[in-house]
Amino acid sequence: MVWPEIESALDNGTRTVIIAVGSIEQHGRHLPLNMDTLDGDELSRRMAAEMGDALAAPTIRPGCSGHHMEFPGTITVPPETLMDVIRSYCRSLDTHGFEHIVLVPTHGGNFGPVKTVAPDIARELEASVIPLADLDEHMQLLNEGLSKAGIEYKQDVIHAGAAETAIVLAIDEGLVRTENIEPGPEGDISPARLLSEGFKSITENGVLGDPTAATTEAGEAIIENVVEAYVEAVETERNAV
């Protein structure tokens, strides 16, 4: 968009803006480093379209990805830096007249910083700040999407497996290096160990679970499931203000 289009949207009553918070980090040998950013772009765009009176801001990247730094190409920032960037985004959009700012983290390492900084920003600004930052709920929505597509495959800790591979297939299947798809560890995986010791302490290829179960149809079902749940949550929050 160009700035007069945003000005016109505001003049015509658009008061909600959606900011995804993504990352640049390894996603195995078959998915691009910007997977979480692609996901953020798609979710915020579809949420804005579904709501009809919202805009999607550019996705924030990179994020807090220190636990992936053993894999080349990963770019990480400290939580404090990410929270400062989120503050700056929100301050800017508040200045322009947006009244509801929705934060949508799409990378696991960003959920904590988003949840931490959102109340502080809300106290500072005129706009209401709506963080959709429940990581367990997000993982559940991804697994539900697989199930709705007829794929009975569930992971408690999701990274570059069936769900995320399906999402990229749905966004742009040409970005998936299908010849490089290979499974990673399954079963009980400790998130605490992943964060403290790094992903390579558990998975040599950067993958958790089995991406071979992914399909384009499943990716579409996952995206639709997340968008539906998130739009409902935003509408509830907006109506409560």
From TrEMBL:
Pfam families: Creatininase. Its EC number is 3.5.2.10. InterPro entries: Creatininase-like_sf, Creatininase/forma_Hydrolase. GO terms for molecular function: creatininase activity; hydrolase activity, acting on carbon-nitrogen (but not peptide) bonds, in linear amides; metal ion binding. Its cofactor is Zn(2+). GO terms for biological process: riboflavin biosynthetic process. The keyword Zinc applies. Keywords: Hydrolase, Metal-binding, Plasmid, Zinc. This is Creatinine amidohydrolase. It comes from Haloarcula hispanica (strain ATCC 33960 / DSM 4426 / JCM 8911 / NBRC 102182 / NCIMB 2187 / VKM B-1755).
